[in-house]
Amino acid sequence: MTTHEAELERLLEAELLDRARESLLAFTCYTFIGKYRVGKVHRVIAEKLEAFERGDIKRMILTVPPRHGKTQLASRQLPAWALGRNPDRQIIATSYAASLADSVSLDAKAIVASAAFARVFPDVTIGDDQKNTASEWGIDGHRGRYIAAGVGGGITGKGGDILIIDDPIKDDIEAQSVTHRERVWSWYTKVFKTRAAKDAGILLIMTRWHLDDLAGRLLEQSRRDPKADQWVEVRLPALAEETDRIPEEWRAPGEALWPWFKEADEWEKNRREDPAGHAAIGQQRPAQAGGTVIKSAWCGQFWEVLPLNGGGQWFWTVDAKAGSKDPSSSRAVIQLWYKPATREAELYLVDQVMGVWDHPETLAQMRRLANMSPWSRASAKLVEAKADGKAIMATLKSEIPGITPINPQGSKVVRARAIAPYWAAGNIWLPHPSRAPWISEFIHEITTFPASAHDDQLDAMTMAVDHAFVRDQNDPIAHLRRITGG
């Protein structure tokens, strides 16, 4: 090697070390034994963990499907990196079993003891004292310590500047146990949280199993009580949705979270085979068992061929209240429904489009559908006359025939309960998942309402069922039928 080549190599190494000190992901790549396979998901997780380490986020819930590298980054690399950056920090890291917590502790300890770590943080070494064990070890000459414990175990006398809970629930059996969920909650409030030092950060990393799991309780508590801990939720679903709690510009709707590990078609297969399980473990949106207002047991009637003999009424329902491209905004939903003339007690959901559209995009979607089969068969286009709906009707009423304003009566819960008996009676038919992959998300939304994150598909659906069966005086199409005998 020439002198020039040696100098270039030295400069490159110095740049790598500088990056490793400032970037969790760069640190992970530098200290990882073997090749660390970086996906988009790991960049997102690392970015959020860096904000947590800096203190920009004091309470964070990170929910990710299994085997996507969350433990490697959050429970192994983050503590090592944080101790390198500030060797006086005290870290408490827990998991559902003490043996697992100890194993992760030893992995983090091995990182700190590695030659690669010594090059990044040359002044930080592991102390050689009587507490240098799997469950507790410290930094030589500093206050910094790493303490491991199992969920439910004692942490008496210990305090932490960074507190981590990694998977407090082992599996579905524990998740379904009310007794176990209560035990975890009691341990969190009476043991774990009391160990937090002033201005400590608390990080909960888990896969969602149940609506009432630890993440669910903490999020619900923060929603109900503004004085309670306010949590930043980083939810990373297996398949990207139209809108999430964090911007999803880094992947398109339907794209897998980490395709190298599991492709989208594999997740879709899981969704078809077990919608409820996929919603929880895959999408991080657990539902109450059996549903709330609309029960999941009522959503099992699927059609593969529409009963078109004898004709019938085709109509749209449009919930066009999304007025911006903001990912936190509600979604615009347009549904196509069919009510056979010879089967008065049946209503069929035929198709649906949904997106976080601004006003011009919503108009463009409606113009496109009006000229596309079978959407063009619809004689009525029912538009909720609120928010963007009024502006859409004003623009399109002279272009698309049949656009009619609908003014839903009562709250969303009242409207859902009003049409629930038609679901219970088996009057509603849904497209088979093989022809409509989005139907499992539709079912999840309507059966988890009012706890669901979104209710846009439910709004369009209640409008349709009300129009088809309730025949309310506020429905102008129903009123037209009465006065014309149609």
How is this structure best described in words?
- The protein is an alpha/beta fold and 486 residues long.
- It folds into 2 domains: 37-282, Rossmann fold, CATH 3.40.50; 296-484, Nucleotidyltransferase, domain 5 (2-Layer Sandwich), CATH 3.30.420.240.
- The chain contains 17 helices and 14 strands.
- The protein has helices at residues 3-22, 24-31, 40-54, 70-85, 98-112, 115-120, 172-175, 178-192, 214-224, 264-273, 275-282, 359-370, 388-396, 412-424, 439-448, 456-470, 476-484; strands at 59-63, 90-95, 136-138, 145-150, 160-166, 196-206, 232-235, 302-303, 312-319, 332-340, 347-355, 380-384, 403-406, 428-431.
- The chain has a 7-stranded mixed beta sheet with strand order 3-4-2-5-6-1-7, with helices on one face. A 7-stranded mixed beta sheet has the order 8-14-11-10-9-12-13, sandwiched between helices.
- The chain is elongated and about 85 Å long.
- Residues 475-486 have low confidence and may be disordered.
Output the keywords:
Nucleotidyltransferase, domain 5, 7-stranded mixed sheet, 40% helix, 14 strands, alpha/beta, 486 residues, disordered C terminus, 17% strand, Rossmann fold, 17 helices
Mean pLDDT: 87
Strand order in space, largest sheet: 3-4-2-5-6-1-7
What fraction, in percent, of the residue positions are helical?
Answer: 40-55%
* Proportion of residues in β-strands: 15-25%
DSSP helix count?
Answer: 17
Counted up, domains total 2
How is the CATH topology of the largest domain named? Rossmann fold
CATH class of the largest domain: Alpha Beta
Distance, first to last CA = 91 Å
| Tally of DSSP β-strands | 14
